[in-house]
Write a structure and sequence with these properties.
The protein has 104 residues and is mostly beta strands. The protein is 0% helix and 62% strand. It has one domain: Jelly Rolls. The two termini are 20 Å apart. This is Pyrimidine/purine nucleoside phosphorylase.
């Protein structure tokens, strides 16, 4: 999906790691939400309450899910984070991403 239609957007940015990771929240009529953001090079760890689909639209990074090895995405790709888990990122170039929060 390259375009999001019929959505609401929260204007206030989500800012993490002293501004090195930022996003905006997109709300859908059915109550679901996504965040669209940018990550600057660096190392980060995030936790989640809901299952997440992390779509990397562009950039080069490595991610590590709990109990798994590091995986590289160079260009674009998708990975899933289970609910109530944390994950680590090593971002090598500016990364453009879309995070979908899944109620599964």
């Amino acid at each position: 999906m390259t375009q999001l239609n019929n959505v609401g957007i929260i204007k206030k940015a989500n800012i993490y790691f002293n501004g090195k990771v930022t996003s905006r929240t997109v709300l859908f009529p059915d109550g679901t939400k996504k965040t669209l953001g940018i990550m600057l090079p660096g190392e980060y760890e995030f936790s989640t309450d809901l299952k997440e689909e992390m779509e990397i639209i562009s950039g080069k990074l490595e991610y590590k899910l709990s109990g798994h090895d590091w995986v590289t995405i160079d260009g674009s790709g998708i990975f899933y984070v289970p609910a109530n888990e944390s994950f680590q990122l090593k971002v090598h170039t500016v990364a453009d991403y879309c995070c979908s929060y899944l109620n599964e």
